[in-house]
Design brief:
This protein is an alpha/beta fold.
Length: about 375
């Protein structure tokens, strides 16, 4: 057994801080846990918004995962470039994005592209783009299962939209999509009960559509907190995202889920302005700032309190400040890993305790080529 902690990096002196570190063995642990919970790769449509990394899409494809979910056109293009056979852009396309998605379908004919719609206006954008580009685009009807962010509640209008999709040339009705981002209770039983209540109308609507001859090929549901709950439904496709890298926000709240933090932020002490203070080079341009402090939890100083944070600085207070010297490295787990990753242009990959390569965060940009 190694005498070093899990986050140790043998050649850390070569890495400039602040930096995003990704631990390959932990990522692999998380991917295997996802497959185990889902019961196989055919049940998964993992969301790539957390990592935005082509090598991780390629690794999931190697594990047998063929379907992916994205939030942006850039993420969608990244998945197609990685060889993903099926990509769902889980964002209604408005403005030029309909044309951009259709152009991807033209550029990558080996990939099946779909997106969401919850109104006639979006269908018109998609239909025009698909017909002009002479490509087929799949459409999932976005169902609001209680979050109130996007989607339509099951009912007559929703049924009309399904008919409209099926009647529109170049649009293909693929199924239903529902996201339960409002269900993240710490108590597992409460989470289970709320999920059951939220999805009862969704499943009833699906049964109605199937009975009317509108075949629902795929029902994509859930996020990370409800991943294992929905895995018990054999007729649903699961779309967790944060599970690949994990963070302490979900880790603290959902200990029932078996995932490990696989992304760390490397920071260094740059000043000691007072008896009990340490200033690090980790401002809110390097870690997601939308949550209250602590936005990052340092493995060496889990109980340190935040005095202030600015664009490039983080000031901590700790009675152990005297133990640390200027230039010393600290390793922090972010509270919210998804927006944290997008703040970095690249990630340093750690394998067996050694920094081996760097991966560009390909889809942090809003545009790759299209």
């Amino acid at each position: 057994m190694s005498a070093h902690p899990w986050f140790h990096v043998e050649n850390e002196s070569e890495i400039a801080s602040p930096a995003l570190l990704l631990y390959r063995e932990r990522i692999e642990h998380n991917l295997q846990a996802m497959l185990r919970i889902a019961g196989g790769p055919e049940r998964l449509r993992p969301h790539v918004k957390t990592h935005k990394l082509q090598p991780l899409v390629e690794r999931q494809i190697a594990l047998g995962i063929t379907r992916f979910k994205t939030s942006t056109i850039a993420e969608t293009e990244m998945c197609a470039a990685a060889g993903a056979p099926d990509v769902l852009l889980a964002m209604p396309c408005v403005g030029p994005n309909g044309q951009r998605l259709a152009e991807l379908a033209r550029m990558f004919p080996q990939t099946r592209f779909s997106t969401l719609a919850d109104c006639e206006e979006t269908l018109r954008v998609l239909a025009s783009a698909a017909q002009q580009a002479e490509v087929d685009l799949g459409v999932f009807l976005e169902i609001d299962c209680g979050m109130g962010r996007t989607g339509i509640v099951p009912g007559e209008t929703a049924g009309f939209l399904v008919s409209a999709i099926r009647d529109t040339p170049r649009l293909l009705f693929r199924g239903l999509h529902a996201y339960d981002g409002h269900i993240h209770d710490a108590d597992l039983q409460t989470r289970q009960e709320r999920a059951a209540q939220a999805y009862a109308p969704v499943f009833a609507f699906r049964d109605r559509l199937n009975g009317e001859g509108h075949l629902v090929l795929e029902t994509v549901i859930g996020g990370s907190p409800t991943f294992a709950i929905h895995a018990e439904k054999a007729d649903c496709i699961l779309s967790p995202g944060t599970t690949v890298l994990w963070d302490f926000g979900y880790g603290d709240k959902h200990p029932d889920l078996p995932f490990l933090p696989a992304a760390l932020l490397l920071a260094r002490v740059i000043s000691k302005p007072g008896h009990h203070r340490l200033t690090l080079d980790l401002g809110h341009k390097s870690v997601a700032p939308e949550n209250p402090h602590p936005r990052v939890r340092f493995e060496e100083l889990p109980d340190a309190t935040v005095v202030m944070q600015s664009e490039e600085h983080l000031v901590l207070e700790t009675e152990r400040a005297h133990v640390f010297v200027v230039g010393q490295a600290l390793h922090g787990i972010p509270r919210h890993v998804c927006p944290t990753v997008s703040m970095h242009g690249e990630a340093v990959v750690i394998e067996a305790g050694v920094a081996t390569t760097r991966w560009p965060i390909t889809a942090r940009n809003r545009c790759i080529t299209v």
